């Protein structure tokens, strides 16, 4: 059996789809299934068993001998949430329990970290594990992910294979339920369809023109390809960046969305809200050399190709993947 936590969410459900496509049918889906707005993400997928996240550790204690791999994707990901107790419970302490049971059961583990750990990028965007204790995330979500990364690196006992993946700006199908936390492409599609126009944040720094703030956008299909590679590779444990390795502007992203909709771009600029202005990242770009060094050589989808696939094959039709 292969376990996926956060199974009904954006990335977890896409990972299950990829597992099914590769012939894996004994997938155990772990999540809070009371949140019914996400359940459409699991429709049409082959799942052996659904386990409520509160019951997961008891389930794992009973079934660990049958578990081949755990993808721990589930987390609280709201960057606007400031109740640290929520992150302590769901992102830090829950992950520690997953880690400990992977050691006890000799189960390999891939878990989701985040590029939010890099803060404003004062130390760059290299997945150098010696730098991780020096990082300064900008919010409690980023703090929680960095705290677990630090804890994992400090442990004398580790799963025989483990990898933490620092997800950069992920976009793609199955994210419709994320609200404000959904990708800019999702919001651009809805704004353009409703009004024919798109609003972007104005730059408040002289070294960036409006709309030319840059992010490393990674298509979710590429992300799950990397997860599958690590599941089979199982040799080089550690913490890895997971982006495309190429920073692109928000203007590029929005123009690609207009193009996928076959519309002329009409873009307006608005002030970045004051409450996030001093914590707004103007540039992120994953250094992908570490993942490449262990043999991952598949090219990443270009922003234009990824947006085109997402808009034409999912957002336009309302389909999930």
Automatic annotation (TrEMBL):
<comment type="subunit">
    <text>Homopentamer.</text>
</comment>
<feature type="binding site">
    <location>
        <position position="280"/>
    </location>
    <ligand>
        <name>substrate</name>
    </ligand>
</feature>
<feature type="binding site">
    <location>
        <position position="38"/>
    </location>
    <ligand>
        <name>NADP(+)</name>
    </ligand>
</feature>
<feature type="binding site">
    <location>
        <position position="53"/>
    </location>
    <ligand>
        <name>NADP(+)</name>
    </ligand>
</feature>
<comment type="pathway">
    <text>Nucleotide-sugar biosynthesis; ADP-L-glycero-beta-D-manno-heptose biosynthesis; ADP-L-glycero-beta-D-manno-heptose from D-glycero-beta-D-manno-heptose 7-phosphate: step 4/4.</text>
</comment>
<feature type="binding site">
    <location>
        <begin position="10"/>
        <end position="11"/>
    </location>
    <ligand>
        <name>NADP(+)</name>
    </ligand>
</feature>
<dbReference type="InterPro" id="IPR036291">
    <property type="entry name" value="NAD(P)-bd_dom_sf"/>
</dbReference>
<feature type="binding site">
    <location>
        <begin position="201"/>
        <end position="204"/>
    </location>
    <ligand>
        <name>substrate</name>
    </ligand>
</feature>
<keyword id="KW-0521">NADP</keyword>
<feature type="binding site">
    <location>
        <begin position="73"/>
        <end position="77"/>
    </location>
    <ligand>
        <name>NADP(+)</name>
    </ligand>
</feature>
<feature type="binding site">
    <location>
        <position position="178"/>
    </location>
    <ligand>
        <name>NADP(+)</name>
    </ligand>
</feature>
<protein>
    <recommendedName>
        <fullName>ADP-L-glycero-D-manno-heptose-6-epimerase</fullName>
        <ecNumber>5.1.3.20</ecNumber>
    </recommendedName>
</protein>
<feature type="active site" description="Proton acceptor">
    <location>
        <position position="141"/>
    </location>
</feature>
<dbReference type="Pfam" id="PF01370">
    <property type="entry name" value="Epimerase"/>
</dbReference>
<dbReference type="InterPro" id="IPR011912">
    <property type="entry name" value="Heptose_epim"/>
</dbReference>
<feature type="binding site">
    <location>
        <position position="145"/>
    </location>
    <ligand>
        <name>NADP(+)</name>
    </ligand>
</feature>
<feature type="domain" description="NAD-dependent epimerase/dehydratase">
    <location>
        <begin position="2"/>
        <end position="243"/>
    </location>
</feature>
<feature type="active site" description="Proton acceptor">
    <location>
        <position position="178"/>
    </location>
</feature>
<keyword id="KW-0413">Isomerase</keyword>
<feature type="binding site">
    <location>
        <position position="169"/>
    </location>
    <ligand>
        <name>substrate</name>
    </ligand>
</feature>
<keyword id="KW-0119">Carbohydrate metabolism</keyword>
<comment type="similarity">
    <text>Belongs to the NAD(P)-dependent epimerase/dehydratase family. HldD subfamily.</text>
</comment>
<comment type="function">
    <text>Catalyzes the interconversion between ADP-D-glycero-beta-D-manno-heptose and ADP-L-glycero-beta-D-manno-heptose via an epimerization at carbon 6 of the heptose.</text>
</comment>
<feature type="binding site">
    <location>
        <position position="187"/>
    </location>
    <ligand>
        <name>substrate</name>
    </ligand>
</feature>
<dbReference type="InterPro" id="IPR001509">
    <property type="entry name" value="Epimerase_deHydtase"/>
</dbReference>
<feature type="binding site">
    <location>
        <position position="170"/>
    </location>
    <ligand>
        <name>NADP(+)</name>
    </ligand>
</feature>
<feature type="binding site">
    <location>
        <position position="215"/>
    </location>
    <ligand>
        <name>substrate</name>
    </ligand>
</feature>
<feature type="binding site">
    <location>
        <position position="180"/>
    </location>
    <ligand>
        <name>substrate</name>
    </ligand>
</feature>
<feature type="binding site">
    <location>
        <begin position="31"/>
        <end position="32"/>
    </location>
    <ligand>
        <name>NADP(+)</name>
    </ligand>
</feature>
């Amino acid at each position: 059996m292969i376990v996926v936590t956060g199974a009904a969410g954006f990335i977890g459900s896409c990972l299950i789809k990829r597992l099914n496509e590769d012939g894996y049918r004994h997938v155990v889906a772990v999540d809070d299934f009371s949140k019914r707005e996400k359940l459409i993400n699991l429709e049409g997928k082959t799942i052996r068993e659904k386990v409520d996240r509160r019951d997961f550790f008891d389930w794992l204690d009973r079934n660990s001998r049958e578990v081949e791999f755990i993808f721990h994707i589930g987390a609280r990901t709201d960057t606007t949430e400031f109740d640290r107790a929520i992150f302590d419970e769901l992102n830090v302490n829950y992950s520690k329990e997953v880690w400990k049971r992977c050691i006890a059961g000799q189960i390999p583990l891939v878990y989701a970290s985040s590029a939010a750990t890099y803060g404003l990028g004062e130390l760059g965007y290299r997945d150098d594990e010696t730098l991780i204790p020096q990082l300064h995330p900008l919010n409690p979500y980023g703090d929680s992910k960095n705290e677990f990364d630090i804890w994992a690196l400090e442990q004398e006992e580790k799963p025989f294979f483990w990898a933490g993946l620092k997800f950069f700006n992920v976009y793609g199908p199955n994210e419709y339920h994320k609200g404000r936390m959904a990708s800019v492409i999702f919001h651009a599609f809805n704004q353009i369809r409703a009004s024919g126009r798109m609003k972007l944040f104005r730059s408040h720094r002289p070294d960036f023109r409006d709309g030319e703030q840059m992010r490393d956008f990674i298509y979710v299909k590429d992300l799950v390809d990397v997860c599958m590679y690590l599941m089979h590779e199982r040799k080089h444990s550690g913490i890895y960046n997971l982006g495309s390795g190429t920073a692109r502007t928000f203007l590029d992203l929005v123009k690609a969305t207009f193009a996928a909709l076959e519309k002329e771009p009409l873009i307006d600029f608005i002030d970045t809200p004051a409450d996030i202005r001093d914590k707004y990242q103007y540039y992120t770009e994953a250094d992908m050399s570490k993942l490449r060094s262990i043999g991952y050589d598949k090219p990443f989808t270009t922003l234009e190709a990824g947006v085109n696939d997402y808009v034409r094959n999912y957002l336009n039709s309302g389909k999930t993947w």
